[in-house]
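Table S7 (text form). Paired inputs.
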Amino acid sequence: MVFSKYTCNFMYIAIFSFLFCKSILASETYAMADLWVTDWNHFRSQLMQAKELGIEGISVDVWWGRVQQSSPDQFDWGYYHRIFKEIRDAQLKIIPILSTHACGGNVGDTVNIPLPQWFLEKHQRLGTGLEFVSGAGNRNYEYPSFWTTEKILPDFVKFWSAFQDEFKRDQDIIAEIPIGLGPSGELHYPSHHSHDSQAGFAEAQYPNRGLLQAFSPAAYHSFQQWIFNKKYPGKTAREIGNLWGFTALNQESISPWLILYPHIPDDPRWRVNRITEFFQNQKHKSGFGRDFFEWYHQSLLNHFSLVMEKAVEVFHSKSSAFQNIHLAAKVPGIHWGASRGRLPSLMSGLVSLSSFDDADLGFRSLFEAYQKLKFKHKNSLFSVTYTASEFPDTEDSNAGKIAQVFFQLAREYGISVSAENALSASLYDPSHVERLFKYVDDHFTQRLVLLRLSDALSSESTRKEIASRRCSRLLTK
């Protein structure tokens, strides 16, 4: 063969193209199925289109409220046998999301699936106090509150174990197992959810501050235990009150309601107004405010650790068919409020004031919790999915910066990370689609999960992006 500069240039281009394509194709592309499939012919057609386009797998909500609806000892897996078979027949992989939250009333909820009635009745009899309670006094039963985790975990474990027994033969096509960790299946407090926003409290609507969810009896008990036993052991209520600048406190008055010190208005609107004043007057940065948000954040992290520990026991035991499959958590992108002190992030519980302004934006404590799990369970595999990966930075949003920091921390701590769009409408915006796929490329994420399959197939810009990756993949084979 005679070599010329053109031959060499072609070889250089070919090798460079090959390496470039391999780098951008490290991530897989998945899409979320509808919350509940009813038109099976249409779904089958969607799966065929997805396979042809280059989508590699489908994520499916496995609803606890449907599977174990009737009683704690009855499981109805019929729907999931059917949908998993449809996905397998289309030669696609599956991400079964173990959805232990209720569906209905929030953005994107097209079906109504409450928590199992027997579960609610059981814990009502036991006095567990499952609900989150906001500053407005509204109750949220979408997911058991984080101060009741130890009491409800046996019910979760029974559901998880039954799932594993039923679908262990599908382990070859299960890509990862996301564990439900909060409202909407994500790790956060329901600070912007419908129990408050639909009750007329605009503070709970996007893009506003959100409402604290720390006022249930279970939260009150937890706060007292944390203050007296962990934060200030050996100190009296009066001494603690003096540290906070409050006078003559007794043990009973040490509670989250100190936000409204010196008295609690009976009217919900007045309570919310007083909480607004608490933030406007910067009292959240006071001694009490810092302690309150440290407890609020640590309660969320403690819940995360307790749930993931139990999930490891179920899915990563030596006899488990799923022991080599990643256990995943989903973390929402609370990105708005950048020009207002990032208060929405505080309301969500994802960060605390102690690390609020650090370069890692307060997310390091979550990855330290992951690190403890990894150290304790050296043979287990963990991953995390970050939503809201499609938005840019704006005057009131640091979405791009948060996503970048989150992905960097995941890499630093050796946690596999996936990206997901927060809104299905984003898939119809070419700039959002471009940014979403660019984050995947730049940060070497494990996979991109598109919300949802129907939107990914309907959006021209999304289809083009997926198809271009498929073509590049074929060129590298």
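Next pair, protein 2 of 2.
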Amino acid sequence: MISLSTLGLFLVVKAARLPVSPSKTLLRFADQVASFGRGTVLDASCGYGRNAVALAARGCTVVAVDNDQGRLAALEQVKTAYIAERASPDVRIGKIFTVCTDLKAERWPFAPSSFSAIVCIHFAMTHLVPCLLSSLQEGGHVYVETFGGQGENFRVLPKAGQLRDLLSRHVEFKYYKERKVGPIEFNSVSVTLFAQKPYEREKEWATRAPGCPQERSERGGAKAVKRLIIAVGSVVKIPLKPARDWPI
């Protein structure tokens, strides 16, 4: 029998157009993401927040980034109730901080080692790989699930082996699957991967995109991110300035 709270929550979610079900493949690895230091997780881009909610229900603090303020406003309406509805009784639930901005390599807003995990689902992020790696803590996890092969998606999907080549020197793959999609001449693939950044404190990344943070930092970076999000509030256009200029 469906409880009144569940029914009411469903109606609110439906009105806000928030998808109910998170990625099934992400859920296979969600406990590993949540177990690493209970740090801050970046969900980029989060859309209506279906995956951010699933991670917050497992105790994660999630910075949910999207360039559509309407989607984030919808998430703000339902996030507290929806997280509580999905959380286990023995889990201290996390929080979601929404940030409306475009993520660009030349104006990457996050400090080095800011996040214990980074989730990119249905987001063209190949050009942001160096920035994502810089902002991922050692020992942290990265989960990527590209678009499928529907319609014209093949035009924005990575090429065969491209994501593996970009990441292989910097992470240890725990799961990797790619499937060819679209016309043969495009050599496009859909990719799902889960990987961990190794503990190598003296390692310098071989490639960096312009504007990515160059300084090394420790776990304090995650606190800096949370402080900034709290300071500016939710669903706002944050200034895209280098992380070293942010107030700490």
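The first helix runs from residue 4 to 16.
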